[in-house]
Design goal:
Layout: H1 3-13, H2 27-30, H3 33-49, H4 63-77, H5 89-93, H6 100-116, H7 121-131, H8 135-138
Helix pairs in contact: 3-4, 3-6
Bound molecules: protoporphyrin IX containing FE.
Length: about 140
Amino acid sequence: MKLWKLIGILACGSGLLACSSQPAPSLYQQLGGESGIAAITDGLLHHIEHDPLIVDHFRDTDIPRFRDLLAEQLCDLSGGPCVYSGATMEESHTGLNLTTRDFDRLVNHLISVMQQEGISYAAQNQLLALLAPMYPEVVRR
Ligand code: HEM
């Protein structure tokens, strides 16, 4: 075998080079697919439950339904095999009078959970970039 070919195979196999034969993983895959998104959603709910500054917003919420819709939305947004079936962000947050601080706290909880789950910074940032445009549909409605 030619030396350059051997070097190519070694570099590809060890991850030193991005190999063209393998498609880049989707954001959904980088988040861990269905089980990864379930863990992120459950972790986020756990953080919300223990955050006295935002938990009251959820006092009248059907939590299992909210959990399923959030997981479905994250799956859909990240390119997974789901179609979000819930209300629009504007519809579901109108009347809650959420503030920028509420939004920032929820996003910070999400970041902590993704960090705990070992999601790469690149994937974390991709998801945050998909959520950021929802700010005006969620806050002060
Ligand atoms: C980008 C940020 C956010 C996303 C992606 C998001 C996502 C969702 C989803 C998918 C639902 C369910 C919609 C439905 O009922 O059909 C929902 C509802 C809800 N969200 Fe958010 N949300 C965000 C920000 C926030 C923030 C910052 C708070 C408060 C701290 C919040 C509080 C709630 C509450 C209380 C409900 C349930 C309302 C009800 O009981 O009908 N959300 N959200």
